[in-house]
Give the backbone structure.
Amino acid sequence: MDPVVTTAPPPSLEVTGLAYAYPDGHQALFGVDLSIARGERVALLGPNGAGKTTLVLHLNGILTAGAGSVTVAGLPVGKRHMAEIRRKVGIVFQDPDDQLFMPTVREDVAFGPAAAGVRGPELEARVLKALGQVGMAAYVDRPPHHLSFGQRRRVAVATVLAMEPEILVLDEPSSNLDPASRRELADILRSLDVTVLMVTHDLPYALELCPRALILSEGVIAADGPTAELLSDADLMSSHRLELPFGFDPKSVREKS
Amino acid sequence: MHVPDGFINAPVSVAAGAVAVGAVAVSLRGARRELDERTAPLAGLVAAFIFAVQMLNFPVAAGTSGHLLGGALAAILVGPYTAVLCVSVVLLMQGLLFADGGLTALGVNITVMACVTTVVAYAIFRGLAKVLPRGRRSVTAAAFTAALVSVPAAAAAFTLLYAVGGTTDVPLGKVATAMIGVHVLIGIGEAAITALTVGAVIAVRPDLVHGARGLTAPLKLRVGGELVDAPATPAPAPAPAAAGSHRKLWAAGLVTSLILAGFVSFYASTNPDGLEKVAHDKGFDKGEKEHDAADSPLADYGVKDISNTRLSGGLAGVIGVGVTVVAGSAVFWAVRRRRDGDGTESGPASTATDDVTAATATSATSTTSATSATSVTKPAENA
Amino acid sequence: MGAGHAHRLYRHGHSPVHALPPHTKLTAVFCFVVVVVSTPREAVWAFAAYALLLASVAYAARVPPLFWLKRLLIEVPFVAFALLLPFVAEGERTEVLGMSLSVHGLWGAWNVLAKGTLGVAASVLLAATTELRELLLGLQRLKLPPLLVQIASFMIRYGDVVADEMRRMRIARESRGFEARGVRHWGVLAKSAGALFIRSYERGERVHLAMVSRGYAGSMPVIDEVAATRAQWTYALTLPLTALAVCLLGWTLS
């Protein structure tokens, strides 16, 4: 399954010429162009400080573009459609403790839809469905800090899924997970029927989950192509401070799968 | 110093409750103006921080330790409105979850500990920050003084409430002098920790220190106007220098608390809290026999040397105020001298220290330890 | 605190008291304490009646007496204070076992001790039978300003997280051979406190981002609400109303 061909208009995410400088003058993005079609799973790779997180914060309008534009499912990101945009773009932050701010799992998952005005049985159904998708339905009344890290990450994904987003944006989804939790999360992500943008420097994980990858380096998209091809290009990788783990050969993985 | 039920009579508790409600209402509005929609998460996290930092033990010496009360620190770091909210929420939760402080005394507790402490600390801090030369050191010096005064100010406010609505006729003069005297000592510990903590935050994220906003803003503008990397080079350089001058600058304050704490804790056993401490001391003065701190030579000390309790109580008060003034002006002076030139501060600093040492010797006769180790009632850090 | 329950006084159970809606319990405890505080101290028997009332509630809540009494230790410092009042207070004096004690002070000590203990006992019962989350819902239902409830809720949610960070910093200090022994080390501890503040504040900012990302616009959506039936109110208010009767009797008899 390699739906690299952009078929269904409009794309889930379209970023054109995005540039941004922080108020202190530090410029993080220098004209980012990318387009992600509906249903695609794309990895956004890049070294530390490449501007990955800055880019992510533009996708739902937390940061406002200095130049260029972001559109989500045809809707420009801006003050006018902010509520709609934030419902459509589900960001899973790196630290699940930041994301799970409510006293119980259920309330946390309900927060997004409730803020969008969903109430009563419909809200309950949404919560259970989202938790079911990540296999955490049994933990509905637990306080988040009683869960393991892997469980918290899954609930964090559920909080976003409950909003039925157009695109799921994950910031370093595999960080701090043990191999089993990592695999479970991968299974969950594969089973979802949404567009996924995964920001990571876990290259094997990107290869495992995302057919397509982008490399963000020094504030621009430096490469865009099938993940396996990018990872196999030793020169490209080293010029952007990306390194494969010891003993990992992307070609062998591709042949196996 | 959480006041329990039945300590202050009903009408005054109600009145204090009304004051507390008013203060919280004003603070809610003020905090919303400052933080807008970020109020809830930020104030909540700051409240969690205060809750946690109250569990952080600062060892004084010989097994005694104290912890931060946090009112002044909160006021300086996040501003008075948010601070009142945070401390009030901490008190409310302590009352409901840990039965720490009576429910009917919640108003009294919030008025004294959340309002008086933060407002006094913030007013003094801002006042000093305006008077003193601009800069990081002034901010820490101002923080020291603000925290130092805020604690006895809260004690004075409590005494006032007790004078109006106390359920037992304890000689008020005694209560006042003893309360304020003890809390001046506690205040010195609080001041040192607060100033050090504010200093630590300023060194890393000066923008987060609410009370120093006026001080960093013009600095930033000039930086923006000039070369970007020009301030970047001097920035790391002053860090060690500042740390060095830190120490010198606060020679007075720190040495004072060091000597006080060292001297005092020589006499003091681990004691619960200022409020109970006052009661203890009073008991000793009367030659009470069955007190549980028999190992503390303080009892003998007090009875032997100063038999007149009024005198020793009064002395404590006078000395307490004296210490405040001396420490404050020493910090002031040191700052002034640093700015004027590279003159050595050893002169004023050591003078102040000597004064204080002398003062300590007497003040310890009726009051004790600059600590307030109430960790008994707090959730254990490692539970 | 880090191990399991953030709320150490809570005792899990399924008693009728546990089942009461939180706001009724909050109201009942608060009214009860108010009644206790306004009882004349000379009516000694009234306080015994209050204690009996609380004991029956504890029985209904199936809170074992030992558990309950242990929690009462929280007020030990005040017992110490109260015991000293007779020696300090002014006024008429009396001789007990060869010590000169103030009559007024004795009454004062009794007053603080009795009312303080009953207050703590009532609070402990409330805390032992009400879950944290419920407590917050109860406060919300009692029309505490929503912003205050939110702050409290965030404080409780992140109290453990912040305390954990503090513990990790301590472990990091200790593993590098640092042990705070005296005033000389305050600088290092204060640096930790400063770092803790910065981390807390920055986490607050990140939490805010996470909230905004899910559609937060200044007010919390109401997800859960607690409601109480008339029967539940009656049941909960039995405690303060009985106490009130005792109190009124106390005023008329003394």
Observations:
- Confidence is low (pLDDT under 50) at residues 216-276, 282-329, 335-383 of chain B.
- The first strand of chain B starts at residue 57 and ends at 61.
- Residues 13-223+239-363 of chain B form a domain with the Arp2/3 complex 21 kDa subunit ARPC3 fold (CATH 1.10.1760.20).
- The radius of gyration of chain B is 21 Å.
